[in-house]
Amino acid sequence: xxxxxxxxxxxxxxxxxNDMFATARDSSPDATADLMARVMRDAAVVQDGFEQAxxxxxxxxxxxxxxWRSLIEGLGxxxxxxxxxxxxxxxxxLGLAPYxxxxxxxxxxxxxxxxxxxxxxxxxxxxxxxxxxxxAL
Amino acid sequence: xxxAFDDTTELSDAALLTxxxxxxxxxxxxxxxxxxxVVLAHAFRLLGVRAEAEDxxxxxxxxxxxxxxxxxxxxxxxxxxxxxxTANLCTDKLRKRRSVPLESVAEPLDESASVPEQMQDKAxxxxxxxxxxxxxxxxxxxxxxxxxxxxxxxxxxxxMEISVExxxxxxxxxxxxxxxxxxxxxxxxxxxxx
Lengths: 137, 194
Description:
The structure holds 2 protein chains of 2 kinds. Chain A is mainly α. Helix content of chain A is about 70%, strand content about 0%. Chain A has 2 domains: about 10-55, no CATH class; about 60-135, no CATH class. Chain A is built from 6 helices and no strands. The termini of chain A are far apart. Chain B is an all-alpha fold. Helix content of chain B is about 70%, strand content about 0%. Chain B is built from 9 helices and no strands. Chain B is globular, with a radius of gyration of 19 Å. The relative contact order of chain B is 0.09. At the A-B interface, helix 1 and helix 2 of A face helix 3, helix 4, helix 6 and helix 9 of B.
């Protein structure tokens, strides 16, 4: 409605554009069931990939690994872990590692730790310790 | 363990994305229901072709699923990230389309629409799509976000990673170009005597 007042070209153009924008807003396409199913299928495939790659915390094993990584990061990363491993190994060697009450698996593992001879194996060692402790506890 | 459906639907997109990365199946269902309509609508407004918009929506969501483990809580909103990805995918589609005649990809008119008003709305939407398609990519995106999605300039600036002033400039130039393109078709589109 223009209330009897002649619209300028500018007003008419603005009204036309606003009207077309409103029509476009109201004519959004609905997401079809087929599209939703395709998206959900993709999600399932990607999620399975995470699980197989040990990403996320949905599996017990990956959860324990996540815990170790967080612990290592909290302690200052691998350089700090190197010192910690060495100090622990020395402590065990000095006889400060009574293993009464520990399961054979864990006790055996602690003795194995004294034979660490290179930091390159730290990760593998901790990863194995992770699994071993998980099974023993 | 998945949360109860009612609880999950209350969570933010970012929280759901984290749950998804941790293997929660319900999280992906909620995110799909919540985000696909948004992405599809935006893609459709940028492309004007439903089939292409659906492909873009699927691809944008696929990229979201893949990035889930790396998503950092508290940073960009999931929807902001999705709008960016969607716009980039649409730009790629439009570049490829420029080597193909528009008629071969344009949405066919619904021949069953017999009501004159429906026909007119379709003609107007086709005209708007054509005019939007003539705009530079960034102008088109800014105009669609501002005038069709009805977002505020600061939000558009965040999505497009530009200043608010740049958004104002893009939308103003875009509107001028649309007015010029559509002004010549006012009679044809039924606006001359309104």
